[in-house]
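Sequence only, no structure available. Ideas?
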Amino acid sequence: MTTFPKLDVETGSYPCTVIYPNGDRQAGQLELEPSKSPHGEVFGTPPGLEKATSFPQPPQHFSVLACDLRVGYQPLLLNASVEMWFPGRSLVRAEAAVVGHGLEQDPESTFPEVSLQITGGHRIFGATPVKETSGPRSLPPQGTVEYKATIDVDANRSYQRDDVELRCRYWLSAHNLDYYRFGVRTAPVFEIRDASRPTALGWIADHVLPLRELVTLGTLEQQTVSWLELDHEDDGTKFGSVQVFSREIAQSPYAPTIDRDKDGRSLFVFSALPYSPLELVERWEKLRAAHPNFIEPLIRGVTEPTDSRSGFLLTVQALEGLHTETYGEGSQYSAKHKEERDSILKDVKQLGLSKKRRAFLHRWLDMNGRYSLRDRLKELRDDVADDVLSIVNLDLIPGDVPLYRNQISHGAGNVPATTLRPVGRALAALGVAHVLRLLDLPRDRMSHLFTR
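Reply:
I predicted one. Tokens follow.
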């Protein structure tokens, strides 16, 4: 973990005073921890429960609950609850905490701009900030030498869509006037400005989490929100930034260094998109809403650290979900299929087929007319075959995928990991190619992440 960019509020346990909406003030302890919802204790009885005789009491809910920290900050707990466990002791929980100075106790307080980091974000920026470095490899016996770094300011990019502006910037830290050390460090930061001024929770739901999921897609790795700050201003006067704590935020700034295994490995970069990155965020959210049975298991299967069996089942489930959501359960309506099935069974009875043979047909002739897994995979494979032909072995799809799926799902056999891995990789590439197709994105960077 780096200390740049430096966050104003450190994670930890803070003595505080909880201020109820009616003005009552009670001592408490607030826990502000990384990747956890704000929580703590209140050493007192919530207003209105002074005569309670049974415990624990049902929680009281507050859209906003104010606190004063002894260190000087004034957090606002959003969507908070206080639950009295016994006289003089209550538990407090909140969906998020906004920590800063001069905040109004209004759940509808809005913020015009945010700054945040998402791990791996620099891999989709499309440019690096340090253009060139120079200096001698060894020092001469005497005299002076020069070390120099050339910073590419044009690596910072800005994108506009309607009333929203997205800036992908590298924050800079340099050691100036330090006669013992020389260095320049950069940190990739997303800055977003929205003229509609969302609330804190609105920012998280509508901008921050969708952007995190987009970076996860672009890198095919699970990514986290490193930190989030909201710009606090009124009538155009900026009062500074406030820091947000929630279970979605790791409170862990990062300043990347060179990583030859991952640098340049992404499905897309913002600077080379056929349309605005803000439009991509919108398309990605619409795609996730339209195809939940495809996107959710696919992203889990290709980004989460799972064993080969779990990853295989997730990607198969995802592709089945895509085909079903696109083409339906079968080539004709179930009622029509059943009508035709009954007609066939009636015909074979009239032709004199024995009762035993008719019973066999009745048992095994499909009652609903659903597509088979083999048919689904063939159609999905053929839709993007040209995009994945050079990076995976398409002979594996459908291949023995239906057999493997049945064996693993029903516990009927053990498929070695050495067999499943190339099949799983081919299925994952197939799913990702369809995501890029549905987003109208080029598939020419898939080889950066998939190899035979």
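The longest helix spans residues 417-438.
Hope that gets you unstuck.
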